[in-house]
Each structure stands twice: as C-alpha cells, then as structure tokens.
Amino acid sequence: MRWTTATLRAMSTQTSNAPSATRRGDIHRWRNTLIATTRDAPSDAELPSHVLMSRAGFIRRVGAGIYSYLPLAHRTLNKLCAIIREELEAAGSMEMLMPSMEPMEFFAGSKRDVDYGDNLFRLTDRHGRVAALAPTHEEIITDVVKAAVTSYKQLPLNLYQIQTKFRDEFRPRAGLLRCREFLMKDAYSFHLDIEGEGGLDEVYETMRTAYTNIFQRCGLDFSAVEAESGPIGGSASHEFMVNCETGEDTIMVCPETGYAANVEKCEIGERQWSLDHAATAEHQEHHTPKMPGIDLVAGALGTTAAGMLKPLVMQPAEPADDRPAWVLVTVRGDHDVNEGKVRDALGYAVKMGDEKAAKEAGFAIGYVSPRMVEKVESSVLVIDHDAVNGPTWATGADKYDHHDTGFNWQRDMAGVFGSASATDETPHARVRIAEVRNAEVGDPSPRAKGARLEARRGIEVGHIFKLGDKYSKAGDFQIMDKDQKRRHVIMGCYGIGVSRTMAACVEMSHDDNGIVWPVPLAPYAVVITLIKPEDEQSIDTATTLAASLATEGYDVLIDDRAERPGVKFKDADLIGFPLRVTIGPKTLEQNSVEIKSRSAESEAELVAIDDALEACKRRL
Fold first, then answer.
1. For 115-128, how does the pLDDT look when each residue is reduced to its tens digit (9 = 90+)?
2. pLDDT at 6
3. Which helix (H) or strand (E) holds 434?
C-alpha cells in the first residue's frame, strides 16, 4: 500500500482559506477522515436537511438546538465563508471579531433585551454580573466604533465578523434551520448621511449587490424580497430567501412585475371599499359559551369567519402623552393583523395589550366589539378596508360568552360614522381606516393593475437593514460633521445565517438518494471510488487524476475503504458529491475510468484515462 500522509500533503498544500479562484484543491482519503454515514435518521428529524445531513455524517446532535459540525459540514461551511469573505471585502467591509458574551448594561439604551424577551440567553458569573450570549452585536459594535471614530472624515466604515450566535428558542426544530447555537455573519456600516457619496443608501445597495453575488456563487435558487425589520429595528430591510417548498416563510409575488415581499411586509393593491352600507339585519345577541376559535363561533352563528369582525386590543409599544392608552385593531375574521401596517397607519409601533390591564379598562377579552372605542375614552379604532365592506357582521358583544349578529357600522356606531363620507379614511379623530392585514394569495398586486398576488415558500438566509440612528442614539454616539456640529451616526446592518444557508441548500437540492450539492459548496467536488483499494494500478491512476484535479482547484476525496461497491456508491449519492469517478480492474482493462455526475438524469460514462481530467472539468 503506497498511501502516505506525506504523499497526499505534497499533492495538496494550499489551505482552504485561500481565494477560491486561485486555490489548489485538497486531496483526502476517506479512511483518514470522519464520515459516519447511517441508514437511519434521528427520531426528531422531519425536514430533508435534518434527515440527510444527519444520515450523511455532516452533523451530530449534542442537545436541543445544539449540533457538532463534522468534517464534511466544516468543509462546506469553510467554502461558504470563503465566498462571503471575498464578496464582502470586495464591497469594502473589513473583518473583525467580537465576544460572544455581552454585559447586560450594553442593552440599557436600546432595550433590545426586552424586545428579545426569553429568546435572549442570560447568565450570571461568580460575582453576580449578568451577561447575555449575543444574538447579534449592534450594541457592542457601536461601542467599539464610538471609541475610535470622532470625525466625519473617518466615515463611511463597514465591519463584519463570522461568529457563533445564540437564541434560546422555545422549540428548536428542523436541525440547523432553527437552532439555539448557530454560525452567522453579521456586518455593520456607519455613516453621517443617508444620501450621497458614502451615505447609508449607497453602501446598502453595495451590500445588497454583494449578497446577490454571494448566493449566486453558492449556486442557490433565491429571491431578494422586501421585509419587516423585526426586533433589530430600522427603516427598511430586505430578506434573501432560498426558494423551496419546505420553507417556513411565505413570499408573496406579483407574477407580472416580479415584486416580492414576505407576508409581513407585502403591500396589497387598491381595493374598492365603502362605509355606505345600510343594515340588512336586526342586531341580535347570542350566548356562545365554551367555543374556542373563530370558526366554531362562526358556525354557531350561522356565518363564516369572513362574515365576522376580529377586534384585537393593542397598546402603543412606547407610551407617550400624545398617544392613546389603547388601540383597537379590527380585521375580518379570516384575516390576520399586521402590526407593521398598524404602525404605519398610526405613526407609532404597537404591541398586544396587557390582558389584565385591558380587562380593568373594560374590555371583555375574546368578546370585544368595535363599539368599545366609544366606551373607553383613551382609545383609537383602526379598521382594515375589508372589515368595513359589508352591510352586517357578527362580532363580540362586549360581554363574556356572548356574540352579536347584525352589526352595522353606520347604524351601531352612529356617533363615529354618522356623518362620514363613504370613502373617508379618517371618519373621526379616533378612527383610522387603512390596510392593516397580511396579504394573501389572490389579493390585488400593488405593482400591476389586474394582477393577483401568488405565494411561494422560502427559507431566510440573509437579511439587510437600514438601522438609522436607533443604536447610535441608544449609545450616545455622535461625531463632528464638516460644520463642526455634533450629529448622531447613521447605521446599517447586514446578516447571513451561515449554518442555516448550508441547511437551506440541502432543502433546495436533494432527491430520494441524498443531497445534491452545488459544486461551490460541496465538501469535495469529486469522489474517486476504488473498487479494489489494494490494487497498485488503481492507486496510481487515482493519485495521478486526483493531483491533476487538485491543480485545477477541485477538492478530491479518495474512497479507499474495504467496502462493497454498492455501499460506496450509496454513500457517495447520500453525501452528494457532484462527481463520482470509479476506478476498478474492469475499467482499467479498457484503459478507462467511469465518470458519473450526481444529478439524477446523468448517465455513467466510460472515459479514457488520458481524457479523464477534461471530462471531469466539463461535467463540473
């Protein structure tokens, strides 16, 4: 046997961090690495990525939402990270590293510990000091840059890191798609202005282009969609979604213009609505005890969810003297309230109302009607367009275990709507009529008249935000501008779920036999399968071809196990190597090797040994 570590090291000396365009490929032996394939998936595995990455020996569960990345996964992550580094540094972002633990006092200004709630890991050291395991690093990076940057001449500045992050998910699931510990790339940019050279808008677009390049180079089928900013905050954001049917996120798409947004952000095109509906039924109260769920109530009342009103009792997220204590948001029973759209309609953010305080204010939670805006002095009513478009409705009776039918806006709320115009979106100082629900399939497109929104499924792998001055104000980060005036710095934030992207790629690309890796992310581009691993001629042929492939930049794994050919072929398909080269006595008798691509439609091809390199390159 002539396999030696020195021989393989001589054939492949370049580190995996080298630029992918010039690096020499790695050559490894199967028996020298840890590849623990198995025929059985973990009992809790449901999605393909969880099943296949566990079976193929990429990951191993340590605890709920906690995984070890085995050598195959580590190689794929390194390739993804190399692409990320190249594109971000081409976009002017520089790498650094921040600590995983954040002292809790850093959240004092941003209040993000409150926003994250129980999702934030908290720990106390021996001295009683409380810290958090970082979900992201907005507060820390702001403090770092604040200490070093004092003048507008030092901006713009763009910094990134690739590091482990933590979120205490209540129910970790789906393998790497929803973990408590995960690998993430987060970048932060700093500016004095939004527009102009070096402004937030310019760098945001540069980073959006970099993200597009990253995911294209990874071979991913993805969409860039408009999105809500969530607990990070900010004025504008885009998500990058890997398109796949098993995705947990819904993307709404205009088929004519290509407009795409997640369901929380998606706008709805113009809809006809009017307050001018005369009552067609008398008001009637019904006893509806022990009926959880709107469909059960609707059935008892002889209507449907679409014929009911669903008022939600909410409050301003940040109370103020010029804001009401309560916000009563009403949508149709088959629709869902969109808090971002409520915020846009009112001009301030809202949250679900505190149940105890709401009951003390007079709200019969679960049985509330829009009439409560007249009964609770410090309140406003926000109504979705679709929820006013009808003559009579079923709604709560403002009394526990009771609902009403025959509710009519004009008749039953004459004090609010009596003199309102049929299409007046502010019929009363305490009422707004606006789009405040989530978009649905079949809604009018906001970009093309006559077109209807369609839905796709996707997995979020990247998210970019225009943060504005939220964190610089929280950290009191100001610098001198060219007029020697102190101004708060403006920030951008740009994240990629690195381990999540690896799993999303598997969700996007697999078949009944296993994973189908795109070449840029495959742990090895080529597996050379030896039918007789002890045969000298087979070894010579494999080492020569592997060295030639490595020179061209391709990573090669030589399967030198003393296993049956069928086992080796099944493992190769399960792991998902883009190309399999088989070498055995029968092929060598014809001075040839067998080459087969991983794709299901590919046929095995017998190729002369002298032509094998070029044949592999064509297929890759």
1. 899 999 999 999 99
2. 44
3. strand 431-434
Strand ranges in 140-283 using DSSP code E only, listed in sequence order: 157-166, 181-191, 222-226, 236-243, 249-253, 260-262
Return the pLDDT at 17: 38
**Domains of the chain: residue spans and CATH:** 5-26+524-619 (3.40.50.800), 76-246+456-505 (3.30.930.10), 284-434 (3.90.960.10)
- Res. 192: pLDDT tops 60: yes
Range of weakest confidence among 17-26, 107-116, 399-408, 463-472: 17-26
pLDDT at residue 100 greater than cutoff 90 = yes
The overall average pLDDT reported for the chain is: 92
Strands 605-608 and 592-597: antiparallel
Residue 419 has pLDDT above 80, yes or no: no
**Is the confidence at residue 492, as pLDDT, over 50?**
yes
Q: From CA 200, how far away is CA 228, in angstroms rounded?
A: 18
| List of residues 6+ apart from 342 with CB closer than 8 A | 314, 327, 329, 350, 382, 436
- CB contact set of 555 (below 8 Å; sequence gap of 6+): 25, 26, 27, 28, 75, 522, 523, 524, 525, 526
Q: Which of 80, 115, 214 is nearest to 500 (CA)?
A: 80
Query: At residue 417, what are phi and psi to the nearest 5 degrees?
Result: -110, 0
Bridge partner residues of 490 (DSSP): 191
In this structure, is the dihedral angle defined by the CA atoms of residues 286, 290, 293 and 295, taken in order, positive or negative? Answer: negative
| Tokens found for residue 96 | 């650094």
Residue 104: other Cβ atoms inside 10 A = 15
DSSP tag of 118:
G
- Please name the residues in contact with 605: beta carbons below 8 A apart, sequence gap of 6 or more: 594, 595, 596, 615
Scanning the structure block, which residue is given the tokens 């997995």?
459
Q: Phi and psi at residue 471, in whole multiples of 5°?
A: -85, -30
Q: Which two tokens stand for residue 72?
A: 């195959």
520's tokens: 């840029």
Element at 379 (helix H, strand E): strand 379-384
Angstrom distance (rounded) from CA 369 to CA 399: 9
Helix (H, G, I), strand (E, B) or coil at 466: strand
- pLDDT on residue 182: 97
Closest CA to 16 of 505, 620, 550, 545: 550
For residue 293, the tally of other CB atoms under 10 A from its CB is: 9
| Confidence band, pLDDT 50/70/90 cuts, at residue 422 | low
Q: Answer for the pair 341, 364: CB distance below 8 angstroms, yes or no.
A: no
pLDDT of residue 15: 36
Reading the block at residue 514, the tokens are 């296993």
Instruction: Note the Cα 216 to chain centre separation in Å.
Output: 17
Which residues face 61 on adjacent strands? 67
Instruction: Over range 64-88, report the average pLDDT.
Output: 98
- Would you say residue 16 has pLDDT above 80? no
**pTM score of the predicted model:** 0.86
pLDDT at 275: 84
Residue 324 pLDDT? 96
Alpha-carbon dihedral of residues 42, 46, 50, 53, nearest 10 degrees?
70
Strands (E) in 436-561, as ranges, are 454-468, 478-480, 486-488, 490-497, 510-511, 514-515, 526-530, 556-559
